[in-house]
Design goal:
Order of helices and strands: HHHHHEEEEHHEEEEHEEHHHEH
CATH architecture of the largest domain: 4-Layer Sandwich
Distance between the termini: 58 Å
Structural class: alpha+beta
Number of domains: 2
CATH class of the largest domain: Alpha Beta
Number of strands: 11
CATH topology of the largest domain: Phosphatase 2c, domain 1
Shape: elongated
Number of helices: 12
Helix content: 40-55%
Length: 391
C-alpha cells in the first residue's frame, strides 16, 4: 500500500516557481497570445471607429491612431488610476528626455532624474495589481452567479413514471445563455430547451427571466408547446428596444399516451430514435426564433406536431454549441456524429446515451475550449406496465 505524506511542506522558492509557471506550455501560451492579440485588435478597431467615425482607418495619421488606442484603454480606468497612469507616463517621458538630451540642465528635474523611472514603474505596477485584485473580486462574483444559475437547472437525472430524462450543460464562460428545463404537471411532463443569443452575463440574466416566465405560464395555464412559444414571444417583443432573440423547442409528454406534442422556434431539430423502426428521424418543423417577428406572424409559421413515443424510444434535444464544437483542426462536431450515436445506442437509457455523446464530444475536441455553451437533454421511454396495458 502506498503512503502519502500529508505533512504540509514549506512554501519556498521552488513552490512559488511551480505555481508561477503552471499552465505555461507552448500550446497554451500560443492560444492565450492569439486570444489577447485578437482582443487588442478589436479594441484598436473599435477605438478608431469611435473617435473617427467618418474616416477610413488607413487615412488616420499614426499619432492620432495611437492617441485613440490610448484613450480607449485609459477610459477603462477610474479617474484616480487614470491620473496616476498619466503622471507615470509624464515621469517616464521626462526621464527619457533627460537621458537622451543630457545638455538640458534643469536643476530640479536633473536632481529628480534618478527616481523618475522607478516612480513611473512602481505607479504602473500598483495600478496593475489593483486591477488584478478587482478582476479577482469580479471572478468570485461570477462564480457565485454560476452557482446560482446551476442551482436553477433541473437535476441531471429525472424519472417521471415511464420517462427517464438526463440533461447535460457546459457553459463557454462562467455563466451562459443556454436553457434546459423539465417540468412535471398533473397531466404530463414538459421538456424545454432554448438558446439565448449571445454569451456571458447578459445571456445568463435573460435566460433566468425566460425560465421564470416558463414556470409561471406552465403552472398557471398548462399551455401546448406552440402556445408556450407564442406567450414567450409576446414577452420578448414587449420591449421594443430589446434586440435579443431566442431559439427553442418545447415538447410535452402526456402521462396517459405513448406520444408527445412538439413545437420548434428556429432551434436545432431534435433527433428521435424509434425502436420499432430501428432508425433515427430529425424532427424538422417550421418556426422563426422568438423575438424575430410579431406573435401573429409567428403563430402562422410555428407548427405543432404529434409524434409516437413508444417504449425504448429516445429523443435528444440539443443546442448549436454541441454541433458547432470544434477540434484543433477547426472541424465541427456536426449532427452526423450525434445521429450515429442515437442510431447505435438509442434504445438504451437516457444517461447511457448522454454519456456516449459526452465521451464522443470530449474525444473530438481534445484540449480545445468550447467557444459556445453546450447543452443537451435525452428523453427515454422505459417499459411501463400501465402504458403497455393501454396500448
Amino acid at each position: 500500500m502506498g503512503l502519502e505524506n500529508e505533512a504540509k511542506s514549506i512554501y519556498d522558492t521552488k513552490a512559488f516557481y511551480r505555481e508561477y509557471v503552471s499552465g505555461m506550455n507552448s500550446r497554451q501560451l500560443g492560444k492565450e497570445f492569439q486570444s489577447d492579440s485578437e482582443r487588442l485588435k478589436k479594441l484598436y478597431r473599435d477605438a478608431l471607429k469611435e473617435n473617427n467615425p467618418h474616416v477610413e482607418p488607413e487615412k488616420i495619421p499614426f499619432f492620432q491612431r495611437l492617441l485613440s488606442l490610448l484613450s480607449s484603454l485609459t477610459k477603462r480606468l477610474n479617474p484616480v488610476r487614470r491620473l496616476v497612469f498619466g503622471v507615470s507616463l509624464v515621469f517616464f517621458l521626462v526621464y527619457f528626455v533627460l537621458t537622451i538630451f543630457e545638455f538640458v540642465n534643469i536643476f530640479i528635474l536633473s536632481s529628480l532624474r534618478p527616481i523618475l523611472l522607478p516612480l513611473s514603474f512602481v505607479s504602473v505596477l500598483v495600478i496593475l495589481l489593483i486591477e488584478l485584485l478587482e478582476k479577482s473580486d469580479v471572478q468570485q462574483e461570477l462564480n457565485v452567479a454560476r452557482d446560482i444559475q446551476l442551482s436553477l437547472l433541473p437535476p441531471s437525472t429525472i424519472k417521471n413514471d415511464s420517462l427517464e430524462i438526463y440533461s447535460f450543460a457546459a457553459t463557454a464562460r462562467e455563466v451562459g445563455g443556454d436553457y434546459v428545463d423539465v417540468m412535471k404537471t398533473d397531466k404530463g411532463t414538459y421538456v424545454i430547451i432554448a438558446d439565448v443569443s449571445g454569451k456571458g452575463m447578459m445571456a445568463a440574466l435573460y435566460m433566468v427571466r425566460i425560465q421564470a416566465l416558463v414556470h409561471l405560464l406552465i403552472e398557471k395555464d398548462h399551455p401546448s408547446p406552440k402556445q408556450l412559444l407564442l406567450e414567450l414571444n409576446d414577452y420578448i417583443k414587449s420591449n421594443k428596444s430589446d434586440k435579443t432573440f431566442v431559439t427553442g423547442c418545447v415538447a410535452f409528454f402526456p402521462d396517459d399516451d405513448l406520444s408527445f406534442t412538439y413545437a420548434r422556434a428556429g432551434h436545432n431539430p431534435p433527433i428521435l430514435y424509434s425502436k420499432s423502426h430501428d432508425s433515427t428521424f430529425k424532427l424538422r418543423t417550421e418556426g422563426f426564433a422568438l423575438g424575430m417577428t410579431s406573435t401573429p406572424l409567428l403563430k402562422k409559421r410555428v407548427v405543432e406536431k404529434k409524434f409516437r413515443f413508444a417504449e425504448q424510444d429516445s429523443i435528444l434535444f440539443y443546442t448549436d454549441g454541441l454541433t458547432e464544437a470544434r477540434n484543433e483542426f477547426g472541424e465541427e462536431y456536426g449532427i452526423e456524429r450525434i445521429d450515429g450515436i442515437m442510431s447505435i445506442y438509442g434504445s438504451l437509457h437516457s444517461k447511457t446515451i448522454s454519456k456516449k455523446v459526452q465521451s464522443s464530444l470530449e474525444s473530438f475536441i481534445g484540449n480545445e475550449k468550447n467557444l459556445d455553451d453546450i447543452t443537451f437533454a435525452t428523453v427515454h421511454r422505459n417499459p411501463s406496465d400501465k402504458l403497455s396495458a393501454g396500448k
